[in-house]
Design goal:
By secondary structure, the protein is of the alpha/beta class. It is built from ten helices and twelve strands. Pfam families: HTH_1 (PF00126), LysR_substrate (PF03466).
Length: about 300
């Protein structure tokens, strides 16, 4: 098993075609077929089967693709870091952003990285806190924004800001930003929420017993876009940080009111792994991310957020 074989595997998996994979790798088609054959002989199992839509991964192929992506990413990182000490910062950096923060942070982060560290290749992964934590621990991302986690043997966490949550409803609702609502008020409302163990759901599960509230959850979804779309169309209400709906409220597609319960706020932290070395490029991009978050709070672009980092 070698790098050429793994790159051929990923190219066919991503394109669904040996021909298109050969074009992407700038080699001839028989060479790709040869690499796949050698790889299958090495692992002792078929990696692809022909389906209606081209080359489809077998179960063995899916397992190998998952590990191959991580292995090649680590090699790309190592190659970028092996350079003279006086060279400019370079490398591949993958940052995990919470779904609610991506629209606010992705573009300014990219712009500033381009200006300060043009040799850095930035990748942004977006997801719920539970997904981001899993990706961080598995090595798929280098750093992430998470909710409320404490430092653990595998993760170091730097608290950055506190933010209040709000209840979000359709345009026809009576929610108002100057009229806070208590969690107990929502007991009979149809709620559309993420499933456990994702951040906001965990906060709600912890807060509900203390207020004697049992929420009426009519749908669980781990896509924030689906949450908001269903609320817009009148299927229920949801609970989100204000930053996630600021534009929707401004366009009058949604209405929102802050939650008055003091425990219903999230602390966003910058999380880094304790189990592997932090590359210079990762440290540089994280510094820019923290700076852009602080600037957003100071400009007032992040409503209800309070900066707490020293």
């Amino acid at each position: 098993m070698d790098i050429k074989q793994l790159r051929a595997l990923l190219a066919v998996a991503e394109t669904g075609s040996v021909t298109r994979a050969a074009e992407a790798l700038h080699i001839v088609q028989p060479a790709v077929s040869r690499q796949l054959k050698l790889l299958e002989e090495d692992v002792g199992s078929a990696l692809f089967e022909r389906g209606r839509y081209g080359m489809e991964l077998t179960e063995a192929g899916e397992i190998l693709v998952e590990h191959a992506r991580r292995a090649l990413l680590e090699l790309d990182r190592a190659r970028a870091e092996i350079q003279p000490s006086d060279a400019q910062i370079s490398g591949v950096v993958t940052i995990g952003l919470l779904s609610s923060t991506a629209d606010l942070l992705a573009e300014p982060l990219l712009n500033e990285v381009k200006i300060r560290h043009p040799a850095v290749s930035l990748r942004i992964s977006v997801g719920y806190a539970g997904h981001l934590r899993d990706w961080l621990e598995s090595g798929e991302i280098d750093a992430a924004l998470l909710y409320n986690p404490k430092a653990t043997p595998t993760i170091q966490a730097q608290p950055l800001l506190d933010e209040r949550l709000c209840v979000v409803g359709p345009p026809s609702s009576t929610l108002r930003p100057n009229r806070p609502r208590a969690l107990a008020d929502l007991a009979s409302w149809p709620m559309i929420l993420p499933s456990a163990p994702h951040g906001i759901r965990n906060l709600l599960e912890q807060a509900c017993p203390g207020t004697g509230t049992k929420l009426n959850v009519v749908l669980e979804t781990n896509a924030m876009s689906v949450q908001k779309q269903l609320v817009v169309r009148g299927h229920g209400f949801t609970i989100l940080p204000s930053i996630a709906v600021i534009d929707d409220v401004a366009r009058k597609q949604l209405r929102a009111a802050p939650l008055s319960d003091p425990e219903l706020q999230r602390t966003i932290v910058l999380a880094l792994p304790n189990t592997r070395r932090i590359a210079m490029a990762v440290k540089a991009v994280c510094s820019i991310l923290v700076l852009e978050m602080k600037r957003a709070v100071e400009r007032g672009d992040w409503p209800t957020a309070r900066w707490i980092a020293e």
